[in-house]
Request: fold
Amino acid sequence: MKFQVSQDSFSVARGGDLVAEKLADTGAEVVRTGSYGLAWLEPMVNVQTNSGTLSFGPVFPQELIESSLQEPNYWSSSHPAYIGTLESFDFYKRQHRLVFDQCGTAAPYDLNNHAILSEILAKSPEEIIQAIEVSGLRGRGGAGFPAHIKWRTVADTSADQKYIVCNADEGDSGTFVDRMLMEGDPTRLIHGMVAAGYATGATHGLVYLRSEYPLAAKIFSEALDQAYSENVLGQNILSSDFCFDLELFIGAGAYICGEETSLLESLEGKRGQIKTKPPVPAIAGLFEKPTLVHNVISFAAVPGIFQIGPENYRDLGVHPSSGTMTFQLSGNINFGGLIELPFGITVRELLEDFGGGTKSGRPIRTVQIGGPLGAYLSESQLDTPLTYESMAEIGAGIGHGGLVVFDDTVDMLAQAEYAFDFCAIESCGKCTPCRIGAVRGREIMKQLRTGAGTRQSLVLVDDLCEVMEKASLCQMGGMTPIPVRSAIANFPNDFNRRIPISAVN
Reply:
């Protein structure tokens, strides 16, 4: 028998390495793969049998007894962890996998079909940028800025050196898609960055990876070595005239380095602090040279655009929110993990049809979407379609695609206080609205929580949020008001009931 066991961090954290060892001890062939994103079923084991590939999960190491493993009918439909075939598994088959279509199917280093990259390098740089524009690809890291504008700006800016920088400093709570891609299909990211370099005239790329992802660093480093050996990186890539080098840079664990100018400062060996714009990085970025900055999934989406054609990619989703989005479910949810779908599904459908409701069995009270600086949605807002435009209409955003679920026991004042506290800790300190505003906001929330606040306290919080939103140098301070204001607006009772009757004025 041949077994596949994920080496993704989901699986490793739950004993996947020991499962693989126990299976290997029986003399079976064991292949370590990426994850399909079914996090609640890890460690997951795929067994290749005469009748096809059967899936089992979760399979914990303490359940594996060597004598039983050697029985021919052990891996069958009678196994308590039997799932069936992945193709028939509802959570998976209803998705539209384009970025993650290969993740989990084989060892990361065996996913090296370079045909699409060869096709891309056979086109002219202008043809590639036009295809990106037609596709409607928007940055998958936050604001959803049209990708082709960045690409064309870098391409049209004259310089003796240009750079491609991948922001893999995935620090938002409830997000893990960058890690999964780099652990499960790193070659796809390499292909996307090579294509971007060719289209814009950049010859050097860097991947800025957060230090908390050691397994992703290991796998991606090995993928880089293999890419050089297969002429996907280096001189005259795949027999073309294009040369491109790529290296991995490990960050020091600062959330603020997820902001592109701070990230570039860190790459230059400086303290991770915000730089004012203009000029934008596309004109004067790394070492003051034109620099294209995207996150992992933005680059990884590029091969899929050319795989299905830019027009077909544009027609996925709800234009101008085109293509697929990789949503990540976590928090108080039954079936946490990765879901890749075209834009347009509602938040409720994602949480109920895919997530299966709360793990606690209690009603969903709110979901925070877009990381720790994202909005808290009310129950009535859960029917909002997940598109950039629809989310903006309710004062929210999609961000990096992470959704953290809370049931009806959550205290929203505590969540608002956490938003200020998070900003106070992670602020780079360069601008006063963010550095001081977050501390003052945390103090006011503590007053309210301990019964020392008044109605005026909420007015003061609103004024403070306005200053942070309009005067902060970057999105760290500018977006902190989003979770605070949404918590107050959507769940006012959690704040009002803390104000003593004697202190209503």
The chain is about 40% helix and 15% strand. The mean pLDDT is 94. The chain has four domains: 2-93, 108-314, 316-407, 412-503. The two ends are 74 Å apart (CA to CA).
